[in-house]
Amino acid sequence: MRHFSIIALLALGALGASMQPALSQEPIKIGVMFPLTGPLASQGVPERDAIKQAFDEVHDVVAGRKIELIYEDSAAKPDIGLTKTKALVERDNVNLLLSELVSSVGAAMAPYVAEHKIPWISTVALASLTRAQKSPYIFRFVPSSYQYALVAANSGKKLGWKKVYFIGWNAPPARESYQVVKKIFGAENVVDAMFPNVGTTDYAPYLTKMDAQPADGIFAAMWGADAPRIVEQWAEYGLNKKMPIFGIASFTSEELLTDMPPQAVGVRSAYTYCGTLDTPENKKFVDEFKAQHNNAMPGSYMYMGYMAAKMVIAALKDINGKVEDKDAFIDALSKVHVKGPMGEASFDEHHGMVANFYELTVEKGADGHLQNHCGQLIPQVRDPYAMFP
Amino acid sequence: MNTEPRQRNNAACGLAAILILGMLALPYFLSSYYLGLAIEMMIFALFAMSLDLLVGYAGMASLGHAAYFGVAAYTTGLLALRLGWNVWLALPAGVLMAALTAALFGLLALRTRGSYFLMITLALSQVAWGIAFGWRTLTGGDDGLPDVPRPALNLPLHLSWSLAGSTAFYYFVLVAITVATLLLIRIVISPFGFALRGIRESEARMLALGYNVWRYKFVAFVLAAVFAGFAGCLYVYYNRFVSPDYLHVARSAEVLLMVILGGAGTLIGPAVGAAVIVLLQNLISAYTERWLLILGIVYVFVALFAPNGLVGVFLEYRASRIKRHVKRLNS
Amino acid sequence: MAFWLIQALNGISFGMLLFLLAAGLSLIYGLMKVLNLTHGSFYLLGGYIGVAVVRTTGSFVLATLAGAFAIAVVGVVMERFFLRRFHLQELPQALLTFGFLFIFSDLAMVIWGSDPETMPKPALFDHSVQLGGFYYPSYRLFIIAFGLAVAAFLWWLQEGTRVGAMVRASVDNEEVARALGINVSLLFSLVFALGAFLAALGGVMGGPIVGVYPGADFDVLLLGFVVVIIGGLGSLKGALFGGLAVGLLDNFGKVFFPELALFTVFAPMALILAWRPSGLFGHE
What we know:
heterotrimer, A: Rossmann fold, Rossmann fold, six-stranded mixed beta sheet, 15 strands, C: mainly alpha, two-stranded antiparallel sheet, 11 helices, globular
């Protein structure tokens, strides 16, 4: 039983931190939690930095109030993410959350956030956040899986593809994407759909299976380190000469291109961010990001984190910084329209993202590095709630 | 000399009483976050103590103990979420499922010992993890089961006590862990507990003495799973969420490290180890991303300077003092 | 037919990487009874060093040697200054090697960042060959040949050399070996270095196939365990057959039961253990 005394002592020691007096004009506290360790840190860390970049631009002051960003690491694990969210809300008393990109962490956070009525602007591509798990406090500044897969499937159709393969993570975003591809192409025209686990290192068995019965193209729905890996092996097995890849969502995002082999030239996708787009807003965003990241290009998640922060700043300005009035804040946030690197963006009636998409093709840039060619603009894409309820 | 153990026992009882009072008063001092942390520490303390029964007392180092924690958590979570079972049914069902799983796994694992036991328990727990991960329709796969409801205690005479609030839930966990801990202590100091120590020291001698060693080990294996399962059930009610991570090998390793860090074979040691690791994970990570590094350094330091665990240091210090005392008396 | 051949080659080439990893794990256990949880880190660090060297010098051979020898040195340091103090003490060994796994994992993140790295293939094997209508990467064929060569070398080392004889004597009876004047302490360091060397070799050679990324240390450690469980601890033959078995199980599991990936590896492993508790080639 003696262990209780140690717990009690440690807990009492921590007490001081939890009993800070409330001030009238204290800073606006924003909880920023991303996977900062583990395999998904390659997206979590730069997205967090991009959010910081947006607040740096206004010198951490909005409507006369100081902004304080409090960072946490979800380690891409749902139970750790949930514990850390509780820490941000109950220990640090954050006013809002600008957090997370991992779907399993997002699913675990949603009930807690709704119950505690904490405004949460997420970049978790879970369709359920604006459907089954919907709450007035949850905003999703990332396309839902139905939203981005529909754009991708329609673009594939436009290329004249009839018979296709689908390969994607054994996780909801890829499974929902498959529903879309099946609907657009017809179940009989999907030769096979395969769902390897997240973090699969060896795609050879799947690729060999596809090689045995060629189709017009492959829809690939995996991200992080897995996207460059499958492209590498796809080229290795000579499939690049037989079946093109259409990547779903951030498959060809700029931070992943640095790890792709030269044969990735020609791989397509259709998503919210194109690093080479020539607008003043994008140039500013890219230059600042590169300056702070050893000349690395920002990718789609960095763009979305940056924009989500800009939307928050705009909403805070609209309510004159009075973030304690949560209803006023979420009302303002649901109405903001912000012009950013890719043009205007806003939230729909369920708090899902509305933004411009571009058709992207990987090309070799002037400096020899891979980059996205910005193709056709698909303006103001909305989540297809009616088609995929 | 005869009275000394009794005196020490009285002192321990007194200390325990003060502790319980302190724990009872905790919600009046702590914010809901730190109360949550205290709940988490208690749950992992029980989880670590359950493994100590195997590692410290029976000498069987398992690297798959999270399987029972997770199986119970999934069972309770599913029954509460899908069938709306109340806590009086869902929690025992979870514990029972953990016991059944352990009985099945035990039949295989107990054919081995030493490093092979370590690895077969790991393998079996990965099978359980594979099922939780792959059987999406039942378990929700990678995303787990969110939104498990906090229970209400439906007592006789139509009394209902909702555990939704953090203070109420804290007391619920406090009572549950206290009862479980007392049971564990009772097991450890029973003849059964001493037989386990005997098996740890020398199986051959226990066999020669006529003990059915296999049966003792099997019962210990299932009992350890029962307490781990109980901890898992409490954890799913606390987190209101269950995912395959609950039974991943990383969690099994973590709980084994809690046991070794605190000091195996002492019950209290693993509880301390659990508290330290939960605190490190939650408090350090607020200040630095490098918490894995810090945790690793802590492990290495403890291995180098306190190979018998944190509590081992204390026990050695006390033993050396007693020895000096005895020497002085003799001279 | 060609389809089956290709799929079998996929499994065998992956199995050879697992063999490199598991051989060290198994050798170390066989001699010192240490279950080295840091083994995954050796793989990861070897891979990172390899990538760094190939980026600066462009030489795959140099990268392989640099990665493997650097990690062998790390292994010797770990054995001499840390593990040696806990001979035959299982629990502190577990705490220590797990601590180093965490430390190396985080240090790698500090030094090389969190982006996944891909090791470029050596120019000689950077093309595909035609096999019955399929393209097959020649690098994978090279991995198979290389793995077999390492296996043959290790077998010769163990069975045909004086050092091997001394190791075998020490495995059988350490006390007697010491009494015979064998420098067991030196052998421990040598074998630990060799184990680390092989794991790092796996990291560099595996780089072009599976990549080098944060978390790879844990992933490969788990697979390495599965291999030695199936093959039996302490047995070179076990590591080879275990590696091939896991490689093939993993590959055909993905082909036939894509939803059950990993489960198709773990379930047979549990069955094998139930049948032979000390693995196919192990002896208690």
